[in-house]
User: Fold these one by one.
Assistant:
Number 1:
Amino acid sequence: MRGKSEEEARSIVEDAVAVAQAGAFSIVIEGVLESIAIEITEKVACPTIGIGASARCDGQVLVTDDMLGMFERVPKFVKKYEDMAGVVSGAVQNYANEVRLRSFPTEDQTYAG
């Protein structure tokens, strides 16, 4: 997380304002203190997109693999909407068990000659 010191926070905001004034069509604000993201969003005319920054940004980004729970470790700012790693693991285990038991493939999954 960035912007803990007053000096660093001021620098981040000043850089964002400068980028906006230079003609940026949007600014991605990632992993800063929420107060910094809010200040930037209020000071620039272009849309701000937050990644672990603030719900007050104009939009949000999450990595699909993170939000779907494909991995055990996810950053603090990720909300896991699903446990796809668990779903995939369960499906693979079911498949492996059916192969071991010789219950897969069935007639439905084979070509009869």
Number 2:
Amino acid sequence: MDVKNYARFSTIGLTLRKNPISGSASVGSIKKGWKVVVTHKAEGGRVHINAGSNSGWIKESGNLRKHGPYSVAVYGTLRTGQSAYNVMSGFQQKVKDQRLANSSLYQLWNRNWTFLTNGPKTVVAEQFQYSDSAGPGMLRKLDIYEGQLTYQGRPMYTRQNVPLTDGSESWTYKTTSFSEPVVKNSGRYISSGDFLKRS
């Protein structure tokens, strides 16, 4: 049956099957930690997923989770083609045109300094998925990179697990309880929610 599409992350490497019947022909595979979109459900707890150019049936229970432990959603200079994109190297999957839920985007002091805050709308993002071997090092690297921007000796960003509009959750760098009022009081609101459409 059709379901409202929702996104998840694979907990293991998975073989995709042609139909929901156990033992049906393989039509491809995906790696552990990949983001997938569930489009249909069948009896026996099997679901049809899309993962980039791959699609097929898998068993959902135990194989999919909402939060990607090494998935990072980025919305500013770390996006494809932007000034800090090279920092995001070594990913195993990238998914564009995503939206962070319940968020707002602000620009403060410098054209490239954008801040994700709590808000009523959505913010455009990309999600990068890293393997178990690369993920811990990548998160440490990003914690250091994002920790460089401070105000009154305190960091402006902190890594938080945030929801996306497709039902998945990823790490991202968001304003702290200290920096959010600073950003909202002194920054410029980017109404489009898109870093690429700021002025």
Number 3:
Amino acid sequence: MDKKDRQYVIESSLKALITFIPGIGGAIGSILSDALADRKEERLNIFLQDLKSEIDNNREAVNKTFVSKTDFLDVFDATANKIANERSAEKRNAYKNILLNGILSPSYTYDDLENQMRTLSVLNEDHILLLKFFNSPQAFSEKSKSLKTGTFLQFFKQILPHWENDYLKDILNDLEVNRLINNISNNLQTMIMNVSADHFTDTLTSKGKTFVSFILR
């Protein structure tokens, strides 16, 4: 793709967004031009198309003050670069959702978005998978709806059969260290009568609930 074609892709993908950013739309185009290396181009194009679609569907919710300030460029730049360099589609989508929450919320600050991105940067797809479970244990899978076991470990082994015990403990510990979930890794093998999905409904901390609300839409 030559420079002219690349600029056309950028401008057409950002048309809806730039409508709400008077005066700085060109600066965003410049950021993206620098980031669009060939191997990263597809990731960024998907991000831009998804962003455009979400904004088109939620025009009335766009926080025009938030997107019209120059600080928004820093957040947009950081998001675009993280997405361009991120292998995981799950994490790329999560970064996009963090940015969208800022654009479509009346109250979030640039610091709020940067804090959520900083948390996301140290997690992987499996951390996000467990956060999805803790966010809605009953809805996680068909098996989790009716499953009953004698310990937390047995429960996790049923819904995540390919995970080794030590790996599960590592993932849980990472989430605990980042204060996203309450401590359960020390109680994995404690005998409890009829462990079910309901035992995990209050596992997310306040910080964890906020983080999940940012990365999932």
